[in-house]
Amino acid sequence: PNSCTIIDFIPYRLRSICRLQRIQGHMMSSKAGSEVLFEKVGNAGVITLNRPKALNALNLTMIRHIYPQLKKWDKDSETDLVIIKGAGEKAFCAGGDIRAVTEAGKAGDSLAQDFFREEYILNNTIGTYQKPYVALIDGITMGGGVGLSVHGQFRVATEKTLFAMPETGIGLFPDVGGGYFLPRLQGKLGLFLALTGIRLKGRDVQRVGLATHFVQSDKIASLEKDLVDLKSPSNTDVAQLLESYQEQSSLDAEKPFVLQEQTEAIDRLFSAGSVEEIMENLKKDGSAFALKQTETLSKMSPTSLKLTFRQIQEGARMSLQEVLVMEYRLSQACMTDRFSPSLLAVLIDKDQSPKWKPSTLSGVSEQAIEECFSSLGERDLKL
């Protein structure tokens, strides 16, 4: 069967899922046991995302194994902390298996509801976890992978970490609680990352606060060993251990933050009441940086840009739980016929130049955006 590539933020070939009737099989594969591994090492519960060939992309099967295991460890007096990491050299987790979910939405399959609902419930479980939760984000961490890490108390970046929320480029929005953590970054940085999908690497991920610590990749195995050896650690004990490793990690310390020169411009240009106003600010500014952002934003889905702008605006005033309820509504709107043709086009077409509908910001009505945020009644996410 024809195998399909997903866009470059998950650069791998999904195996033979071009036929709709195979979606469910893909998401609920019998290999579940091997796609995510759980071990007790010392007093630590260790989760390994184990799909290295797929950059540890998250599917529904994995979510359905991780959630009950976290609940179990939370209640288990023999488990003092949880560590989550990705198998292989390249990725922590490069996102969710969006392709299968989108096809399901188009086919009216319940997977499009189940995936987002259960993923967001898992994000909330991580965000409210009572025991120390340490995500070792040693590699690509995007979309769904951000959701498995950023809400936990401790996120350890390395020089191999590559962070992005690239959803506006595929007709979605930066979900998994993006409406909560992005507006809480300094100034307008979160909105900038959300709209442009720009990637941050290594130490910069920690500098902006998406990671709590930076540790060199070659020290991660040793750090993990020391973490599992901790006896009944408090959050302070874990923080002290991570800080001691951070102090030994001088790699790239002298390199300035990649956006240091642009921070003032980002705050100024992205302080606006609408996406149109941002575009106006960028055009008026005319600097090389502003022109580059104009070019980036002009390739994104106009509907996604407007949804995301409002999501970040609303999310700044909400709790994580309220944000996830809002994002579930948005996720279901994105699965409707109005969205999915464009979305599927990006995920399937080789030329990666999607024909967005509407194709301009002015073509996206306020009413269309408003509808995406409205309550689903009985079908709303319950946390």
Class from helix and strand fractions? alpha/beta
User: How much of the residues is beta strand, in percent?
Assistant: 5-15%
Largest sheet: 6 strands, mixed
Across the major sheet, the strand order is: 3-4-5-7-9-12
How many helices?
Answer: 18
First-last Cα distance: 40 Å
Whole-number mean pLDDT: 90
Q: What's the number of extended β-strand segments?
A: 12
The radius of gyration over CA amounts to 20 Å
Report a brief summary of the structure.
With 383 residues, the chain is α/β, with parallel strands linked by helices.
Describe this structure in words.
With 383 residues, the chain is α/β, with parallel strands linked by helices. The longest helix is centred in the first third of the chain and has 17 residues. It is globular, with a radius of gyration of 20 Å. The protein starts with a strand and ends in a 10-residue tail after the last helix. The N terminus is likely disordered.
